[in-house]
Amino acid sequence: MSLAYHVSNGDAAAAFKKPAAVPGRVASVYSEVQKSRLDVTLPLPSVLKSGFKVIEGPASSAAGNPDEIAKLFPNLFGQPSAVMVPSESGGLDAEQKLKIGVVLSGGQAPGGHNVISGIFDYLQQHTKGSTMYGFRGGPAGIMKCKYVELNPEFIYPYRNQGGFDMICSGRDKIETPEQFKQAQETAIKLDLDGLVVIGGDDSNTNACLLAENFRSANLKTKVIGCPKTIDGDLKCKEVPISFGFDTACKIYAEMIGNVMIDARSTGKYYHFVRLMGRAASHITLECALQTHPNITIIGEEVAAKKQTLKNVTDYIVDVICKRAECGYNYGVILIPEGLIDFIPEVQQLIAELNEILAHEIVDEGGQWKGKLTSQSLQLFDFLPEAIQEQLMLERDPHGNVQVAKIETEKMLIQMVETELEKRRQGGTYDGNFKGQSHFFGYEGRCGLPTNFDSTYCYALGYGAGALLHSGKTGLISSVGNLSAPVEEWTVGGTALTSLMDVERRHGKFKPVIKKAMVELEGAPFKKFASVRDEWAFKNCYISPGPIQFIGPAANAVNHTLLLELGAQV
Amino acid sequence: MSLAYHVSNGDAAAAFKKPAAVPGRVASVYSEVQKSRLDVTLPLPSVLKSGFKVIEGPASSAAGNPDEIAKLFPNLFGQPSAVMVPSESGGLDAEQKLKIGVVLSGGQAPGGHNVISGIFDYLQQHTKGSTMYGFRGGPAGIMKCKYVELNPEFIYPYRNQGGFDMICSGRDKIETPEQFKQAQETAIKLDLDGLVVIGGDDSNTNACLLAENFRSANLKTKVIGCPKTIDGDLKCKEVPISFGFDTACKIYAEMIGNVMIDARSTGKYYHFVRLMGRAASHITLECALQTHPNITIIGEEVAAKKQTLKNVTDYIVDVICKRAECGYNYGVILIPEGLIDFIPEVQQLIAELNEILAHEIVDEGGQWKGKLTSQSLQLFDFLPEAIQEQLMLERDPHGNVQVAKIETEKMLIQMVETELEKRRQGGTYDGNFKGQSHFFGYEGRCGLPTNFDSTYCYALGYGAGALLHSGKTGLISSVGNLSAPVEEWTVGGTALTSLMDVERRHGKFKPVIKKAMVELEGAPFKKFASVRDEWAFKNCYISPGPIQFIGPAANAVNHTLLLELGAQV
């Protein structure tokens, strides 16, 4: 295996003029902590350490609408899951030389480099003479056949390191017949035996479509997915957690814990912390379990209770007033990035605004507001001016509000200020309120992976290699029994079709892996709900501190996972 | 020593109704990392471990205007510094029972709790039967005689922990004759032998005034200062660094490093990171040395070169354009919080606006702008609308713009966007620019102190105890030789008057400890200046990762200190 960049599409002269957008890393200039992670030997689950074979479970179905899923995946539907079991003789052909591609898809999550290292090491150790390609820049790299051949020297500086910059990621999808054809051409050109797609729910759906497409075209190329997303919303019984969630939450929790101690020391600020995670509130819930803030808003609960923005504001204000009576004019409040997406009245307002902005002239005098329903008009007028402006201005290319750009934490501070002033006038509040806003997002996506994420990802990748070696396709790499020591972790693959349901879009059924939302009946939320009132009025702050890689604190696992696995936290 | 809260001023019934604003911590609910820090035994400089005595150096002078300082401090001016040296016999009376108070003054900095632990342990080990009081809520606690008596059980949960919440801090000053009288009353009431003031430049000036006042009133109470500020702007030859700087910079650098890897992985964002540190740019410079960003703005350089906002914008835009030619449409840019304070034209504009807003009616039509000088008008019109609004609206109680509230990072993003658009029209730029803004501030003030800050603070406190035991007053605790192993650190005290100069305020000379700004001829800036062009166009990012407490990466010291001490970094 030698290091070389191949760019088959594009202008070679231009490529020469413009250096590669991502120069490889040089470990010699690493920080001490980065260096200290390079040579860490990761434990593997016992089943992967000696001889093993892959056995199959019973036929699978789908998460919903199995008939439609069966039609969409005629070759793959119903296939069983696979699990590695010890085997003296081994079951796999050690003489086989494989050609395997790997691609990173979507947003960064700590541990992606270790998935790649895991696949690579599997191939080195079990299929000597194999070749591994990293497609550059996400799925577009597959379509354009842009790749780098991976070798030990190239991979080394990325071991146990954060980021996706070894081969970079992208958000393109392989969707149209033309795009599937390009992917086939690449698979044929590189003589690929397999492809590992590291991504979230969409990317794994895409991986399954690709597996189906390759099989229907009689290509030998198998496709295996790996569960990636810091948001934690890609999970199921067989895939207990997506990688990156553990590290990202610990990074955010470190910052939240610091801010808490600052709040208590200063005694005069309410810190409103917005946390990444647009669709589901797992990150916010996990950070709450790690740090015990005074107030935590969980989007799924707001939606389930059909709460209005006023309800949310009142809840916050009620706590602030009661705390003021106790002499506490400070606190910490966690807010999920996607909060306003969960509020039915806001969704309604945004839908009406989208419609108006697409078709009407928005006059300075505000005549256009007459087009709003009275409920939406009332809400619009209730919103702070800056948020009104954001709702009117920011549109994505599809004409939709870019909800993630709305600074919900600042909006809530303003709404809380207004309500507190009312209560002050009414004589029911005489405290002091100063809000400080924070958004923790990009800081968590590329941190050095925790020991958990490093090890979990390595096992996911190593297992993906084994699944491809055994000829599996359309599975998502599945490592389980995660509350036990690493030696006892289980390794296998779950039929991607079994995670799927369909959604109707533009009159057609589209397969989707439903995002796993925070379950209000699940153990993590119930634990939180049982203690939040105590957290609100007593100050039970916990400061998790910086992620440690050595020592007694280094191997803690996130609360969400442990609680979901039935452990006491 | 027993644990008890004493509130001598104020309503006891109210105190009962309102629980203490800061309940003591309970170590049993700590995170694993917090727990792991509690029982760490900190190394002490050798000189403090066995018998030592305090010897004096030559008479001191002042940093400037010694005649005026001599008039302001007739009792203290000229006193020598003190240094601990080994002594078989010991020089200090082990039978003496001391009553010592301690106060935290100003903003939080990691390590404050360890200064207190250091004083406490000194007293326990060298003056058995002594009593220690912690004044609550900063200098106001001295004036109101609000304190807690410290004992081992009370102190234990705060050992090596961040925050100031053991006794909390405050920003009051002891300034008026009435306030000095209150302080004297407290000193007499508690029969104080000594007081340790833990604070920044202002607080240490105040400590010296208090020492002078107590001595002139023939009180026995001695006053010793300790150098605290994350900003790093309280330092001199004898006090090589203020505590908290090391930890805060490492916390910010962790986040910056993460964002850098995200930038490189995504390839599409310029991250504009504003860093705390309003007066001096030490934090920004240190974070740059730790992480190698593409662009770093140092306020002191902007001021020295009399740069305009347009100059700063053009510099950033030049780098962005050149990077776009190289195929890089991403990067990381560090900006000190106080940037606009350093820009002469902005200071001028703000002064004019303050004057206009104090005396004129600001009309919607903009007639008021006629009162601006043409240079200021031009600058005002050049600023993004949101910044114009911030400049017009936000005033502190003294009628001044609250510069720290101005989101300089967002302002620069907008100005860069505008300039890039011009260049695109002019055909000199065809890249893509998307700015992301960050402010790292509160997250760094209360983190778990690094091994360096933990150890340094403990030595500062232990040394302060020894200085009081030997009857010293008006000194700042000074621990030196910090690039050597802890055993070889020197311990002593520096005459606070020797750090002082005077400023004329309201027609009177006021003593001040001048803030130590970034020296453009100093080693840290020169190192930075010698490599910044390489950092701008090559991507030399370093990700320091989370602070480690164990292992090879745990004992690194910040670059600024090492470079200033003449070490190679």
Automatic annotation (TrEMBL), chains A, B:
<protein>
    <recommendedName>
        <fullName>Pyrophosphate--fructose 6-phosphate 1-phosphotransferase subunit beta</fullName>
        <ecNumber>2.7.1.90</ecNumber>
    </recommendedName>
</protein>
<comment type="function">
    <text>Catalyzes the phosphorylation of D-fructose 6-phosphate, the first committing step of glycolysis. Uses inorganic phosphate (PPi) as phosphoryl donor instead of ATP like common ATP-dependent phosphofructokinases (ATP-PFKs), which renders the reaction reversible, and can thus function both in glycolysis and gluconeogenesis. Consistently, PPi-PFK can replace the enzymes of both the forward (ATP-PFK) and reverse (fructose-bisphosphatase (FBPase)) reactions.</text>
</comment>
<feature type="active site" description="Proton acceptor">
    <location>
        <position position="231"/>
    </location>
</feature>
<keyword id="KW-0021">Allosteric enzyme</keyword>
<keyword id="KW-0479">Metal-binding</keyword>
<feature type="domain" description="Phosphofructokinase">
    <location>
        <begin position="99"/>
        <end position="462"/>
    </location>
</feature>
<feature type="site" description="Important for catalytic activity and substrate specificity; stabilizes the transition state when the phosphoryl donor is PPi; prevents ATP from binding by mimicking the alpha-phosphate group of ATP">
    <location>
        <position position="202"/>
    </location>
</feature>
<dbReference type="InterPro" id="IPR011183">
    <property type="entry name" value="PfpB_PPi_PFK"/>
</dbReference>
<dbReference type="GO" id="GO:0009749">
    <property type="term" value="P:response to glucose"/>
</dbReference>
<dbReference type="GO" id="GO:0046872">
    <property type="term" value="F:metal ion binding"/>
</dbReference>
<dbReference type="GO" id="GO:0005524">
    <property type="term" value="F:ATP binding"/>
</dbReference>
<feature type="binding site">
    <location>
        <begin position="229"/>
        <end position="231"/>
    </location>
    <ligand>
        <name>substrate</name>
    </ligand>
</feature>
<dbReference type="GO" id="GO:0047334">
    <property type="term" value="F:diphosphate-fructose-6-phosphate 1-phosphotransferase activity"/>
</dbReference>
<feature type="binding site">
    <location>
        <position position="337"/>
    </location>
    <ligand>
        <name>substrate</name>
    </ligand>
</feature>
<feature type="binding site">
    <location>
        <begin position="442"/>
        <end position="445"/>
    </location>
    <ligand>
        <name>substrate</name>
    </ligand>
</feature>
<feature type="binding site">
    <location>
        <position position="107"/>
    </location>
    <ligand>
        <name>diphosphate</name>
    </ligand>
</feature>
<comment type="pathway">
    <text>Carbohydrate degradation; glycolysis; D-glyceraldehyde 3-phosphate and glycerone phosphate from D-glucose: step 3/4.</text>
</comment>
<dbReference type="InterPro" id="IPR000023">
    <property type="entry name" value="Phosphofructokinase_dom"/>
</dbReference>
<keyword id="KW-0808">Transferase</keyword>
<dbReference type="InterPro" id="IPR035966">
    <property type="entry name" value="PKF_sf"/>
</dbReference>
<dbReference type="GO" id="GO:0015979">
    <property type="term" value="P:photosynthesis"/>
</dbReference>
<dbReference type="Pfam" id="PF00365">
    <property type="entry name" value="PFK"/>
</dbReference>
<dbReference type="GO" id="GO:0005829">
    <property type="term" value="C:cytosol"/>
</dbReference>
<dbReference type="InterPro" id="IPR022953">
    <property type="entry name" value="ATP_PFK"/>
</dbReference>
<keyword id="KW-0324">Glycolysis</keyword>
<feature type="binding site">
    <location>
        <position position="201"/>
    </location>
    <ligand>
        <name>Mg(2+)</name>
    </ligand>
</feature>
<comment type="function">
    <text>Catalytic subunit of pyrophosphate--fructose 6-phosphate 1-phosphotransferase. Catalyzes the phosphorylation of D-fructose 6-phosphate, the first committing step of glycolysis. Uses inorganic phosphate (PPi) as phosphoryl donor instead of ATP like common ATP-dependent phosphofructokinases (ATP-PFKs), which renders the reaction reversible, and can thus function both in glycolysis and gluconeogenesis.</text>
</comment>
<feature type="site" description="Important for catalytic activity; stabilizes the transition state when the phosphoryl donor is PPi">
    <location>
        <position position="228"/>
    </location>
</feature>
<dbReference type="GO" id="GO:0003872">
    <property type="term" value="F:6-phosphofructokinase activity"/>
</dbReference>
<keyword id="KW-0418">Kinase</keyword>
<dbReference type="GO" id="GO:0006002">
    <property type="term" value="P:fructose 6-phosphate metabolic process"/>
</dbReference>
<keyword id="KW-0460">Magnesium</keyword>
<feature type="binding site">
    <location>
        <begin position="276"/>
        <end position="278"/>
    </location>
    <ligand>
        <name>substrate</name>
    </ligand>
</feature>
<keyword id="KW-0963">Cytoplasm</keyword>
<comment type="similarity">
    <text>Belongs to the phosphofructokinase type A (PFKA) family. PPi-dependent PFK group II subfamily. Clade 'Long' sub-subfamily.</text>
</comment>
<comment type="subunit">
    <text>Tetramer of two alpha (regulatory) and two beta (catalytic) chains.</text>
</comment>
<feature type="binding site">
    <location>
        <begin position="268"/>
        <end position="269"/>
    </location>
    <ligand>
        <name>substrate</name>
    </ligand>
</feature>
